[in-house]
Design brief:
By secondary structure, the protein is of the alpha+beta class. The protein has two domains: 139 residues, Beta Barrel (OB fold (Dihydrolipoamide Acetyltransferase, E2P)); 260 residues, Bira Bifunctional Protein, Domain 2 (BirA Bifunctional Protein, domain 2, 2-Layer Sandwich). 35% of the residues lie in helices and 25% in strands. It has an eight-stranded mixed sheet, sandwiched between helices. A five-stranded mixed β-barrel has the order 1-2-3-5-4. The protein has a three-stranded antiparallel sheet with strand order 7-9-8, with no helix packed on it. Helix 7 crosses helix 9 and helix 10 crosses helix 12.
């Protein structure tokens, strides 16, 4: 069947304004015709007996021109509409995108009702219809309407559903994206399944989920620039959380040996295809575990999530590409892989002047006092782009990892890994630093960097250090972005995996 939007161009602003005025007039008429006009234009509830997906599942076997003898009451949004003389057609869409045709005939509803349909019903309206489930002469599963009601009037016209919305339109008006695109709805479903999968994996391993403060008097747990706010009640400066780490570690000190949180974090930094100022983060800590235990946990979390949305460890991205997350993932060392790529040995003892010379030779602009910053930037330049399979990059420079334990057998590095999937960092894991004396020394060094102008440096957190002084067991920790996990599983950019991402106004 055809519809009123088929092959039509998008409406101009003037045409939208004109349609809005017409639709507001129809709304006024609905109020006038209401049994209780004071109650407004729309019914408070409608007697739905079946969902559209349920009707399709139960009666999908009907052959062309066959009737079921069963009456149903269904509701949905009008996404196609074609009015003819004595028989009108519409397609109603459920929230999950499932559609069904409805037919309004003169013989079933009468002249007055058919005339009202033609005068009042528009694309985008929410309708309730009641009638028999049938199959049309062309074999289209339908409801032959006997009664109908406008449940909600669309005052603005829908965009042309035959035209692809631009990415900017999809992000700024996600509600229209959800109406128009199957992929947008699937993204929401997949995200929900992934979060449920993560929680189940943790529950199966005896983890406890907690909540930590979003407003903090001291920002910490990551090297990031915070958002600053003010509490009127306490008349004090506060920071939006950049990470829950320091509070979750307090929980471990208190005896919650396996703890995790799925939370919102806020970092006052740039936005691009893999970064958002507001994002969802998973962090977990396991007492008496180390970064090797956490690597195994992370692989299990991701593989279980893949299986729960795709039925396999091989996922299919939105562009049709297949990506294999199965098997044991590769592990490489940062310094070893960098040395191999550069063609000369680079170690934690390599002078910063030598690292600066390599960076200059490659056209990499770095200006930082820490040698570790040069090592990490050089590694990203030389190695990161060559990683195809999921890969744990092990053993980072000590001076860039203030919350991580020194490596048990290698000088100048810490027991930290970053997990790279699809060429971007998905997660990070630590053998956590639990010695309060060393932690204080690391914080003092961070304070020195902050005084020198490093906006991402951590502050000295006396309350956290006090907690460590009561004794924290050896612990392994994990941090993983939920949005980035969806990116790895779907092949989409970060703005597509977040339902309502922050975007620049205007």
């Amino acid at each position: 069947m055809t519809d009123t939007q088929q092959n039509e161009p998008e409406l101009t602003d003037d045409e939208v304004s004109e349609q809005k005025a017409v639709r507001l007039g129809k709304r006024a008429r609905l109020i006038e015709e209401a049994a209780s006009p004071a109650g407004g234009a729309y019914p408070v509830a409608v007697p739905v007996t079946h969902t559209i997906p349920a009707v399709r599942e139960e009666f999908g076997h009907l052959q062309a021109d066959e009737t079921s003898g069963v009456d149903v009451g269904i509701a949905g949004r009008v996404v196609h509409l074609r009015n003819t003389g004595k028989l009108c057609f519409a397609v109603l869409q459920a929230g999950d995108g499932t559609r069904i045709q409805v037919m309004v005939s003169l013989a079933e509803v009468g002249e007055d009702s058919l005339a009202r349909w033609k005068e009042l019903v528009d694309l985008g309206d929410h309708l309730f219809v009641f009638g028999e489930v049938v199959s049309s002469r062309r074999g289209e599963l339908s409801v032959m309407v006997r009664e109908w009601t406008i449940a909600s009037k669309a005052i603005l016209p829908l965009p042309n559903l035959h035209n692809e919305l631009s990415e900017e339109s999809r992000v700024r008006s996600r509600y229209l994206d959800l109406i128009a695109r199957d992929q947008a709805r699937l993204n929401v479903v997949n995200r929900s399944k992934v979060v449920a999968s993560l929680r189940k994996t943790f529950a199966d391993r005896g983890y406890i989920e907690v909540e930590t403060p979003m407003l903090q008097v001291m920002h910490g747990g990551a090297s990031a620039r915070p958002f600053v706010t003010h509490s009127n009640a306490f008349d004090t400066e506060l920071f939006l959380r950049i990470a829950p780490e320091l509070y979750l570690k307090r929980a471990v000190v208190g005896g919650i040996d396996r703890v995790f949180e799925i939370n919102r974090n806020f970092r006052n930094e740039g936005a691009d295809s893999t970064h958002s100022p507001e994002f969802a983060m998973l962090e977990s800590y396991e007492a008496y575990g180390d970064y090797n235990v956490i690597a195994e946990l992370t692989q299990t979390l991701v593989q279980n999530a893949a299986f729960d949305i795709a039925g396999s460890h091989t996922v299919t991205w939105a562009d049709g590409t297949e990506y294999d997350l199965g098997g044991e993932w590769d592990r490489i060392r940062m310094y070893d892989s960098l040395s191999e790529a550069v063609g000369e040995e680079i170690t934690p003892a390599t002078p910063v002047e030598d690292l600066r010379a390599i960076a200059a030779r490659e056209g990499i602009e770095i200006e930082h006092p820490l040698p570790g910053k040069y090592v990490e930037e050089l590694w990203e330049h030389f190695v990161k782009g060559n990683l195809v399979r999921p890969t744990f990059v092990m053993d980072f420079p000590v001076d860039t990892s203030p919350l991580v334990r020194a490596h048990r057998s290698r000088e100048g590095v810490v027991e930290k890994w970053d997990l790279y999937v699809r060429g971007f960092e998905l997660a990070t894991g630590y053998s956590e630093l639990i010695d309060p004396v060393v932690q204080r020394e690391r914080f003092v060094e961070q304070a020195r960097l902050a005084a020198a102008g490093d906006l991402e440096a951590m502050r000295l957190d006396e309350e956290f250090l006090r907690a460590l002084e009561f004794g924290m067991p050896p612990t392994g920790g994990l941090g993983m972005g939920i949005d980035r996990l969806l990116m790895a599983l779907t092949g989409l950019g970060i703005r597509e995996t977040i339902l309502f991402p922050l975007v620049k106004q205007g």
